[in-house]
Amino acid sequence: MKACVLSSYNSDALEITKGILASFGCELMINTVVPCDLIICPDYEKKLTHTEIGLSRLGAFVFHPSLLPAYKGKGCIKAQYKAGETKGGASWFIATDKFDSGPVVWSGAASINTEIPPKIYYKNSILPLLSDGLKHLLHEAVHA
User: Is residue 131 classed as helix, strand or coil in its secondary structure?
Assistant: First the structure.
């Protein structure tokens, strides 16, 4: 399976994504969109075009560190902290031509303790959800 991975950062999310895709035997194309089986965006801050999405046989999947549709957009974790939320989480959704608005295909919840800095919450609670959700999506893709 060929996977295009799009990331705006050289991040833990990107490294986790690459490791999981490799464990599923995927051929990886990093930060380029070519005809492929799926597009994975673990931390991509650009909107995919209709043409880019169309290059993927199974679709383009985007990770977002909130339980969509709540807290769309950049800075959503800080917004959850500011609002005093005690329940957060993460979502994988199918990319469309609008930001953070495609159908959610996987989500997982996490408790927010505002005594813990947002970066630690992201590392300890959100990144494991990225991993769990991506493994679920890949399992579904392999058996599609």
Answer: helix
